[in-house]
Amino acid sequence: AMKEKNPWHKSGIVIVAVIAVVAVVALVVVFVVQNMPLPQKYKYGIVLDAGSSHTTVFIYEWPAEKDNNTGRAEQKHSCNVKPGISSYAGTPWKAGQSLRECMREAEKNIPKQRHAQTPLYLGATAGMRLLASDEVFRAVSETLQTFPFSYQGARILSGQEEGAFGWVTVNYLDDRLKQGALDLGGASTQISFVSKMFDGSESPGNSVTFRLYGNDYNLYTHSFLCYGKDQALKMALSGPPAIRDPCFHPEYVETKEYSKLYDSPCVSDRKPQGAPAFFQHTGIGNFQQCQDVVRSLFNFSQCKYSQCSLNGVYQPPLQGVFGAFSAYYYIMDFFNLTDTSIPLDTVKERIARFCATPWQQVKQQNPGIKLKYLVGYCFAGTYLLTLLTDGYNFTSETYSNIKFIHKQIKGSDAGWTLGYMLNLTNMIPAEAPNEPPLPYAGYVVIVTVIIILLVVLFLF
Ligand SMILES: Nc1ccn([C@@H]2O[C@H](COP(=O)(O)OP(=O)(O)OP(=O)(O)O)[C@@H](O)[C@H]2O)c(=O)n1
Ligand SMILES: [Ca+2]
Hints:
By secondary structure, this protein is α/β, with parallel strands linked by helices. Among the domains are: 41-158 and 414-427, ATPase, nucleotide binding domain (Nucleotidyltransferase, domain 5, 2-Layer Sandwich), CATH 3.30.420.40; 225-404, Nucleotidyltransferase, domain 5, CATH 3.30.420.150. It is 38% helix and 19% strand. It has helices spanning 7-35, 92-97, 100-109, 126-131, 134-145, 159-171, 229-237, 258-261, 287-295, 327-334, 344-356, 359-365, 371-374, 377-391, 416-424, 440-459, and strands at residues 42-50, 55-63, 74-81, 119-124, 150-156, 180-184, 188-194, 207-212, 215-225, 244-245, 253-257, 278-283, 322-326, 402-404. A six-stranded mixed sheet has the order 8-9-7-6-13-14. A five-stranded mixed sheet has the order 3-2-1-4-5, sandwiched between helices. The structure holds cytidine-5'-triphosphate and calcium ion. Cytidine-5'-triphosphate binds next to α4, α7 and α10. Calcium ion (CA) is lined by residues 51, 125, 185, 326. ATP binds at residues 186-190. The active site is at residue 162.
């Protein structure tokens, strides 16, 4: 009998193979889809930074299901209003009104179902330290309570908190190396850093301890009230009647109201008897002389500690790199000098040349810059350099340890607000995060390749 070929034999193998391949592909697909991260659910927090010159509403966002020890809160949105609430001393209700528009934006930026559980904090800094108006706080609180968030209250931060939380923000997410923090505001300025030479014993008032990513830190921090850039300018102007002012450009002439100059506690006791109502403010644009004026605002005559920065305030030796933000950044960004590999002498020369440039020419060369800011950069640049060198003791050698920064990793603004919220929500990461051994994509690729390998072996 003829051996009949079984036509089913060959096609049977093919069918089995196809089914096997389809099954494996299906397996892989199901596996990948199943293991894909679910659409994230987020939690939110709102912090209002009520500074002396502005109020900024910050919205932070972090994954809801993750434990909080991995450093993942990020800035989702920010909204800025000027001027600061402390400028509404005469009309407190307007301070409340001024925040409405940004708060409505916050409502839009946070999903409705999360509103009620979103904490809302307002922290005020140096402007309110100087004003200390209960009426302004009451008006602001009333406004904030009309929004559907979980209002946690408004308060004035101490200078120590402001410095310490700025340090936490700068070091959050970045556990590789501990950076110091330099904050130059309108009404106060802060310096915060960790130093081997500082254990808090010499000056307990400058000491703050934190546990961050598995390490304990003893932080040195100090806030100088009245030494923000706007109040420092008032102090500089209120010296001997500033007729010919080295901190303003040649050809700058402006008639100014004397009483406006003395409207802050930083300068009120300097007001001379029988001062005229108006004075002519005339620039001569001289960096060296402007530096002398700034130095005269710093008192170096007494120090009861092993060493001091200025005004008899203890400061341990500088250590490590520093993130310098807020006005430090705005000023150096204007001068195109945020790159600190540029030698300090070159930086001084450039600012000196700017100060010596006649005001008309400065205006022509900087058409895009608001005049109220532009007019102040000669003083601001001189003040910044003098504070860093004569004040904090940075040198030509250590200047490059400063990094002028605006945003943190992942786009959060550098400043005290993120650190403040992390602290109040118990989210300052006490332990270092547990990294998964493989990134997710790598894990999927490896699993898939192994399965395909097994299938190929099986077929042959
Ligand atoms: N784009 C900007 C924004 C602000 N400024 C100025 O920089 C200074 C500091 O601003 P900021 O850090 O916002 O200070 P505040 O938080 O308002 O003040 P403080 O921290 O002292 O309360 C102010 O003189 C402000 O006018 C600037 O030159 N350019
Ligand atoms: Ca500030």
